[in-house]
Specification:
With 351 residues, the protein is an alpha+beta fold. It contains 13 helices and seven strands. The protein folds into three domains: 117 residues, Immunoglobulins (Immunoglobulin-like), CATH 2.60.40; 110 residues; 56 residues, Orthogonal Bundle (Arc Repressor Mutant, subunit A). The chain has a four-stranded antiparallel beta sheet with strand order 3-2-5-6.
Length: 351
């Protein structure tokens, strides 16, 4: 009995103390940029910069480093994205939403609240080309993308229909086999999206394999077991129904209308849950700090204007340069223990 109680205590203690740390370095192209941590519920939208999916944002410091840490992530693995760009003034601009911003980089990875990951520059000083970690699934999506690009390059050098047919077949089979080595259904789901997509050059070969292979049913069972009621599962079920999977349990597949409603509600609940958790933790932290006691007079002026004005507008109001405003903001973030403008309003809310 005592051993059981001790085991339960250690288990709950580890959950309570769970904290993720995602940090990295950027090159000179992204000095003074902002990094965003987002959740990716739908692999088909992995390239879009969806502002509603943003969980946290962090400025790049003077030595080119950024850092995300906290307890707001799920205990189970999910797909996350770190996006970095220099367009700090308007992240809702259509270029971000359509992923056409040239001054940006991003990386997708699988992680949970217990994980620590570092994203260093590679030997060519390039951003988000490598991951420093001891867990293989952190590297899974990056390595799957690398294999996908290699197989796609082979297609460009093909000289006959026979060669192209072989590449089409080997493409999705190679991605399947490689993704399974990570022992993580989300990695396999990510690879599935690459070769099953309606624009994929190997889609025809995949559709033929879908009629005879048990692989897709096995992946469905894995997702049901490990990620029940998740958008990852419902998206995969919808894809199998769309492609007429012969082994799919029809009773478990939603209609298009129902699937849309479920996906929308699930995304809304996830966003609200993470937002409320983040806000509630920050409210407690912010109430302990009186900004008027820790900020200089000039920093107080900048801080109060941050509620309603951009960096340029603040600079014009105070007759200083934008660079000076950014310096004040960095000092404010450091002194008040905050990471974005979203947290400012809590310092002015009445109890």
């Amino acid at each position: 009995m005592q051993k059981l109680l001790l085991t339960l205590f250690l288990c709950f203690s580890s959950i309570a103390n769970a904290q993720f740390i995602f940090s990295g370095k950027v090159n000179a192209d992204f000095q003074d940029a902002t990094a965003y941590l987002s959740i990716v519920d739908d692999c088909n939208k992995k390239s879009l910069f969806i502002t509603e999916a943003i969980l946290m944002e962090a400025p790049v410091d003077s030595v080119g480093s950024f850092n995300f840490q906290g307890t707001i992530l799920d205990q189970k693995n999910k797909i996350y994205k770190i996006h970095i760009d220099k367009c700090n003034e308007n992240v809702t601009d259509f270029k971000h939403l359509m992923n056409h911003c040239d001054a940006s980089r991003e990386i997708l990875f699988i992680a949970n609240v217990n994980d620590s990951i570092f994203f260093p520059l590679n030997d060519l000083e390039q951003v988000f080309c490598t991951v420093s970690t001891k867990k293989s699934y952190h590297n899974a999506l990056l390595e799957i993308d690398d294999l996908h690009e290699k197989l796609f390059a082979d297609l460009q050098f093909s000289k006959s229909d026979l060669q192209r047919h072989t590449i089409y077949k080997n493409h999705f089979l190679s991605l399947q086999k490689f993704a399974k080595t990570f022992h993580e259904p989300l990695a396999e789901l990510y690879a599935f999206q690459l070769y099953a997509d309606e624009k994929s050059f190997s889609r025809t070969a995949y559709l033929k394999d879908l009629k005879k292979s048990n692989y897709y049913k096995e992946l469905l069972l894995q997702l049901k077991k490990k990620y029940p009621k998740s958008t990852y599962l419902t998206n995969y079920q919808y894809a199998l129904k769309r492609d007429k999977h012969p082994f799919l349990d029809k009773s478990a597949v939603f209609s298009k209308k129902t699937l849309f409603i479920v996906l929308f509600i699930s995304l809304l609940i996830n966003v609200l849950f993470f937002y409320k958790q983040f806000q509630s933790k920050n409210k407690i932290k912010h109430k302990e700090v009186d900004y008027k006691k820790v900020l200089t007079n000039q920093e107080q002026k900048v801080f109060e204007l941050m509620l309603s004005q951009s960096n340029k507008e603040i600079a014009a109001s105070l007759f200083v340069s934008v660079s000076t405003v950014k310096t004040h903001i960095n000092n404010i973030y450091s002194k008040l223990g905050i990471a974005s403008r979203r947290e400012i309003e809590h310092f002015f809310n009445a109890d």
